[in-house]
Design goal:
It is built from 1 helix and 4 strands, in the order αββββ. The protein has 110 residues and is an alpha+beta fold. It has a 4-stranded antiparallel beta sheet, with helices on one face. A hairpin with an 8-residue loop joins strand 3 and strand 4. It is rod-shaped, with a radius of gyration of 25 Å. The chain starts with 5 loop residues before the first helix and ends with a strand.
């Protein structure tokens, strides 16, 4: 056999190629995870906004102005007077955090 030592070189080349691929894909996967987390927070904000707008249209007031805690995230509900036709504006706000930025969604009552 004349190919002694080629196994070590092949192994090192394949491991270096694997390292290069992981250096490329790991930041992309982390970014995708962060985007999914922000999207989940935005979806939850819209869900809370929808529920609060329904409660406002039925009862004439929001359920509570205290923060709502879901999955360890506090969603603050604000009720404002809109400029048009005496409508109320409900806003759901998520405070700025190290894992996600500040998020606020608003909607007008009917």
């Amino acid at each position: 056999m004349k190919n002694k030592g080629f196994f070590l070189i092949d192994l090192l080349l394949s491991l270096s190629a694997l390292l290069m691929l992981s250096l490329f894909f790991i930041p992309s996967l982390i970014d995708l995870k962060n985007q999914a987390w922000r999207q989940e927070i935005e979806n939850q904000s819209y869900q809370i906004l929808y529920e609060e707008l329904q409660i406002l249209s039925i009862n004439g007031q929001v359920s509570s102005l205290n923060p709502i805690l879901k999955n360890g995230i506090a969603y603050q509900i604000n009720l404002k007077d809109a400029d048009t036709f005496g409508q109320k504006e409900v806003c759901v706000k998520v405070e700025n955090n190290s894992f996600y930025g500040e998020e606020e969604v608003c909607g007008l009552s009917e």
